[in-house]
Amino acid sequence: MDPADVRLPRARQGNAPQATTVMLLAEFGIHPRPWFGAGPLATLVTDIGTTPAGARAVLQRLVRRGVLERRQDGRHAFYRLTGPTATALAHGGRALATFTARAEQWGGTWTVIAFSSPQHADTRRATLRARLRWRGFAPLYDGVWCSPDDPHELGSLLEPGTDLTFTVLRAQHLPLDLPGAKGPLDVWDLDATRTAYQDFLTRWEAIAPQVAGGRLRGADAVRARTQVTDDYRRFAALDPRLPAATMPPGWPRARAWELFCQVYDALAEPALAHVLDVTGMGEDEVRAHTVADLASGRLLDALRGAL
């Protein structure tokens, strides 16, 4: 499959069954990329908030988007992440698990991607924009996106054969005291991001004692782990990811990161136990990863060896 043909669902506020299903599979389906039976997988999709009637429809839509592949064995259908999707999600997971630490290492240089495409490539242009947002880029202008991160492993974003022409630059911003001058930091709405951080802290600080006490089990654990990831991943795009010293006083990034790690890792065991119970699979087939696993790049290395 051409990686450009994969169209990951966009993150949306409220109920977004396709996006949350992708989050579920990002938790348990990246490596070793297991085949899930259609019935058990639909049950897990229902567990995280989709109606039973809608669960199978979500899986079919994700196949059409190139996110999932499907195989038939007699009367039984099975689904798993496509290779390009698993790779994109592993990159995204690593970005999510490292952006707080990387922010403090920033040296003042921006990565800038400028791209153009023919009119008939609207879908692929939209796919690239979604991937750029997932990797923490923000649009400085139409077709010009910037990020404080180093341009490592951009190949998964800028695949050949996508009908896109692009240029990647490393640049420093020259502030000018002129009307109309716009800097990279102006792309981010810091007030809205602070509010989003505070909403995250309010919600998950209330739930954290239940998690620490082992009171979230079964479907509740799977739902909570998927949701905390879905809630937290937005900050990789919302937060400029610049050193705390350059941000407004009391910037809540570090508090949110500590809370996410606490909740995410504590839910690994009970969530995995429920997935194994529903699917009847073994721990050699389905695994729950920790924040350290995501940050280390081990998932990417394993995928490279398997694909």
TrEMBL record:
All residue ranges annotated as the Transcriptional repressor PaaX-like central Cas2-like domain in the record: 104-153
Any one of the GO BP annotations: DNA-templated transcription
Domain Transcriptional repressor PaaX-like C-terminal, residue spans: 188-275
Transcriptional repressor PaaX-like N-terminal domain: residues covered: 33-83
Protein's recorded name: PaaX family transcriptional regulator
PANTHER family hit by this protein: PHENYLACETIC ACID REGULATOR-RELATED TRANSCRIPTIONAL REPRESSOR, TRANSCRIPTIONAL REPRESSOR PAAX
